[in-house]
Amino acid sequence: MDTAAFVERTLTDLDHTRLVKLTGRMRTGAASGDADNMADALDAARLVPSRAVAPDVVTMYSQVLLKDCATGRRFGVTLCYPADAEPSAGFVSVMSPVGASVLGMHVGETARWVTPNGEAGAAEVAELVFQPEASGDYTL
Fold it and tell me: Given Cys at both, which of 54, 108, 124, 130 links 63, Cβ 3.0 to 4.6 Å?
C-alpha cells in the first residue's frame, strides 16, 4: 500500500473514525505495517460529513468498477472491512493493496498499489456503481 498512502483522499467522518479504530487494533498484530500505512493515509485525508460526500467518491461498502491500466480489463469490487472480505466474490478488504488504494478516490482517478509479492498494479476508477451515502445510507 505504500504508493497509495500519499494520494489525496476524501473520507467521510464515519469511515475515518471506524478506520482509525481498526488500524489501532491492527497495529498490535501481524499486519502492523499495513496498519501503519493506512494510519498515514488517514492522517492526510480530507474529511467531510457523510451527508456531504460527493457521489463520485469511493467510500466504505461502495461498489466500484475498475479498469486495469495495463490490460483495459474491467472488474468490480466492493470495498469492505477485513472481517467481511471475500475476494472471490469481489468483496475486497480496505486493508488490502487494492482496497487501500481506491478508498477516497474519485471516479476518473487512477489507483496504484503494490502487492505483497512486489507486483505493481494500477486501475482507473471507471464507475461508482453504488455508494451507500448517495443512496441515503449514512451509517453503513
Answer: 130
Task: Render pLDDT for 5-44 as a digit per residue (tens, 0 to 9).
Answer: 456 799 999 999 999 999 988 876 655 567 777 888 898 8
Q: Quick check: 63 and 76 in contact, CB under 8 A?
A: yes
Of the candidates 82, 77, 62, the residue with the CA atom closest to the CA atom of residue 12? 62
Residues recorded for the chain: 140
Q: What is the pLDDT of residues 124-136, one digit of tens each?
A: 999 999 999 999 9
pLDDT at 119: 93
Distance CA 131, CA 108 (A): 15
Pick from 107, 102, 104: which is nearest to 122 by CA?
102
Prediction pTM value: 0.90
Q: Which of 26, 51, 47, 48 is nearest to 37 (CA)?
A: 26
* Measured CA distances, 106 to 46, 103, 139 (Å): 13, 9, 20
Please answer whether residues 97 and 118 qualify as being in contact, where contact means their C-beta atoms are separated by less than 8 angstroms.
Answer: no
Euclidean distance between the first and final Cα of the chain, in Å? 24
